[in-house]
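Thread title: Can someone regenerate the structure for this chain?

I was given the following input by a collaborator and told the matching structure tokens would be attached. They weren't. Posting the sequence so someone can regenerate them.
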Amino acid sequence: AAAKTEMMDEKGNVKNIKQAMMADAIGTSLGAILGTSTVTTYVESGSGIAEGGRTGMTALVTGCFFLLALFFSPLFLLVPGAATTGALVMVGVFMLSSISMIDLSDLSEAFPVFVTLLTMVLTYSIAEGMALGMLAFVFVKLLSGQFRDVSMPLYILTILFILRYIFA
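Best answer:
Regenerated them for you:
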């Protein structure tokens, strides 16, 4: 979404990324404390901006619809999951446009992307796809001698993910 919203500076860095990620972290933390699913405010804000919303009104309208949905949730639960398949396929198609920015000629970049996408599809879990994609990225970089391309926090996450798969 960020590439489509012209939110990047001339160097290709996302403008105000620190503030966006802080809002995302606070939303995720509060959501976890309150027992909701993970909040992805940054991605959803980028989607709203891509559609033309820049004043915050899109967030306000979306919030109002979510509040309204609380009262109509029993009615929404009557709709079978299969009815949402078409919308989910279109979301996947739209998400594929970001792949064009990945250097697919570099195997150490392309393989982790493939692992991530395949895992998400086969496990129905974005989190599992991201975890295995991250592991694939680190292992490919290590095995190809590009270990300096991997940051220390990524090495720490890799160890934690390995421990998670061993003990879970």
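The two ends are 34 Å apart (CA to CA).
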